[in-house]
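S.,

Sequence below, as promised.
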Amino acid sequence: MAIAEAVAAREVSEREQFNVWFREEHERLQKEREAAHTPSMAIVATKGTLDWAYPPFILSTTAAALGWNVSIFFSFYGLELLRNELNLQVSPLGNPAMPMKMPMGPVWFRDINWKIPNVVMSNLPGFESLTRNLFLTTLDNHGVASIKDLRAMAMEADVKFIACQMTVELFGYEKADFIPQISEWSGATSMLALARKADVTLFI
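The prediction came back faster than expected:
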């Protein structure tokens, strides 16, 4: 009886030792895989206005600077961000966060929260152009890079630009309208395959 108990205890001890070794080995291999893994991010850019152009380029260049593999799929109005000549606008209509505070003048003037009704903004000639200029001035005052510069930074950081071929055909664009640095002309199937493998996927 005593011998049987001793054998059973030894078997339990050996099993526990194996379990400890297995857990430690699994954790070690997991850490090695994580260390060798390069994070990836896929961004879907669908907006073509000046204000919405910043998020995809800022996020992509930041991730690329961290060593991530980054791809941006430009679809519908997001294709405006890939044009040879950028002429992006910004509209305060339907945007409760706009218009922004004034970027110039005395402090008391810059601190005013301008609450302008949509009906006024939509009927005031040149209001959208004024808003765009004020937006650009605000960015410049804070040292924020232009979209053209951010796009160039993204290209230098090897961010992959993918243009939606369906949208190009739908809107009657020509490939010559866009920058030559586009890596791929494809559709939703390719984007879904990319997003499926990415660690982070963003829709902007």
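Helices lie at 2-36, 50-65, 107-110, 118-123, 127-141, 147-156, 165-170, 188-197.

Coffee later?
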